[in-house]
């Protein structure tokens, strides 16, 4: 038997609540606190399914009667917040009724031979989360984020990632030169050069580079690419959303292997 | 020679400003006002490139000296707002320095034989905008949104669409039965049935159905599909982001035709 504790909190000024509010609402608070905030049952269940356990499980008061049955084994420390307080901490337009605080996984180091997605200053949290989902779905093992990319463990990226974080090794804050450690071929998309993706023979494993929403992949990184690949756009639109382009490229690499 | 007017506005309570604030910040205000708000030079230039013209062009005071040269032909009616007022009207975290008010295009009717993307209650504005970009890039002609999908001409969807709106016929507020008018085969993705996309022979033109972020395609619509297609996910993730799935499917249909 393990013992567990349940604490009810009603005050906005409680120290735990203040820290949690920061964790839930500040994009990079997880770096200072060394822990992350997973809000909503989908994300929490995804963490449990990967064998992770919450360091603290947090529930709204009205969900607690049901939660203490459903989530009895999810943590040893439970916090119950008044509903309005939970909503205040969450900061979401539609706050969930639960969340987990999880210790931030120890930083992985870049594996030279792993199928990789490189994020070259991708800014938008929704895009980054979507790319993580695609990476995980198509068999990539690690995501390497160049300094200037969205913070990978921010609450927004976690929500958009829908659990993909737990299936990948995530390395962030890299300099361009750190990528020299990668031994797999580097692939970039180009609007004007290279083979068309739907006809190209793609190496596996490989590292796909996805670039900044406005500026694309930085020239220094493009120069290091082994392969430039074009996505045929018969409609002639000037560019795709970066997460859409990533989905197409990662699928092409992953499917049919 | 055409005559043009320039009006400077400094008051938050000005009637034009109040209407514009609603147009810029309320998701569905365009339906009442019969006009849409394009914020930022990228979106405005995309409209101009398609031969559209602003009914009113709006600039921040500090951008006006440059704008009156660059955008002299974009409209006949120009409004200049104090910078703080422009920011207040915009509501964006990083407000642009300009925007166009455009008359809402007359509603198109469903073309039975056109390559189509059907949005079956896709909720997220960023997803819908990304899907519109992919649709346009891969040669689809019309997007048909079932009632319950995000409002297609909302400012958020317009921003995420990056100009794709102007290359497509957009029909919204459809009932499921309205789709009976489509003569092209209906395609849906399935997690468990059908051919794998990367091996499938896809008909062209066709109509791809993209479903609600949580619930997927409604069963009634799935029943009408001519073809079910699976996206191979060797990584075993449970699902892709809907805009990512759309990108993969639309690319597969469009590229190499």
UniProtKB/TrEMBL annotation, chains A, B:
Key word Methyltransferase present: yes
Q: Which residues form a coiled coil?
A: none
A GO molecular function assigned to this protein is: RNA binding
Which positions fall inside the tRNA/rRNA methyltransferase SpoU type domain?
116-251
Q: Name one GO biological process term.
A: RNA processing
Q: Which UniProt keywords apply?
A: Methyltransferase, Transferase
Q: From which domain of life does this come?
A: Bacteria
Is Transferase tagged as a keyword?
yes
MRM3-like substrate binding domain ranges (all copies)? 14-97
PANTHER family from the UniProt entry: RRNA METHYLTRANSFERASE 3, RRNA METHYLTRANSFERASE 3, MITOCHONDRIAL
By sequence similarity, the record places it as follows:
Belongs to the class IV-like SAM-binding methyltransferase superfamily. RNA methyltransferase TrmH family.
Could you identify this protein by its name?
A: TrmH family RNA methyltransferase
> What is the originating organism of this protein?
Acidovorax delafieldii (Pseudomonas delafieldii)
Give the source lineage, highest ranks first.
Bacteria, Pseudomonadati, Pseudomonadota, Betaproteobacteria, Burkholderiales
């Amino acid at each position: 038997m393990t013992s567990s504790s349940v604490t009810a909190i009603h005050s906005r000024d409680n120290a735990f609540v203040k820290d949690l509010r920061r964790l839930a609402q500040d994009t990079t608070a997880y770096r200072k606190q060394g822990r992350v905030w997973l809000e909503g049952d989908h994300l929490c269940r995804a963490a449990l399914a990967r064998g992770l356990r919450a360091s603290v499980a947090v529930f709204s008061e009205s969900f607690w009667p049901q939660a203490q049955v459903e989530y009895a084994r999810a943590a040893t420390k439970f916090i119950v917040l008044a509903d309005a307080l939970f909503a205040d901490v969450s900061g979401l337009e539609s706050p969930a009724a639960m969340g987990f605080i999880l210790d931030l996984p120890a930083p992985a180091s870049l594996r030279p031979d792993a199928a990789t997605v490189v994020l070259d200053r991708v800014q938008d949290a929704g895009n980054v989360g979507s790319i993580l989902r695609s990476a995980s779905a198509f068999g990539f093992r690690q995501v390497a984020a160049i300094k200037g990319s969205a913070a990978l463990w921010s609450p927004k990226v976690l929500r958009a990632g829908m659990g993909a974080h737990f299936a990948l090794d995530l390395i962030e804050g890299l300099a361009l030169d750190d990528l020299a450690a990668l031994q797999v071929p580097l692939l970039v998309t180009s609007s004007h050069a290279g083979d068309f993706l739907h006809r190209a023979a793609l190496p596996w494993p490989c590292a796909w580079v996805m670039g900044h929403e406005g500026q694309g992949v930085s020239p220094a990184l493009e120069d290091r690419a082994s392969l430039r690949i074009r996505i045929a756009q018969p409609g002639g639109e000037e560019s795709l959303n970066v997460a859409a382009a990533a989905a197409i490229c990662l699928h092409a690499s992953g499917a049919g292997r």
